[in-house]
């Protein structure tokens, strides 16, 4: 298993950050691992919603089939996915108001036999991607 996380303070109200974070049409502008949504993002972001995403991590392309399994509008959404080679992925996005700004945290987890072979490199690459994503998200929100 490889667990990763990143957190950043974004100088924008939580509502604005949440709106950007959940605008699937603009994922490519801030999400460093995202390449496309083959059939578009979820029709409605809610528990049980499903969608497919093409991603790139450590230079490898992958399609992940996501299911929203945690959702609190304006604050948290978590997705679990199945990727290639039996890899399971979990991502949780959390937005916490902090005065006129927001604290945004992304937690991720990768499990599966293929992960154990490259857990260290995967953790480093994914952590760098999360930090880059938060930096870009912050730039879009101010």
From TrEMBL:
Gene3D superfamilies: 3.30.530.20
Superkingdom per UniProt: Bacteria
InterPro entries documented for this protein: Polyketide_cyclase/dehydratase, START-like_dom_sf
SUPFAM superfamilies the record matches: Bet v1-like
Name of the molecule in the record: Polyketide cyclase
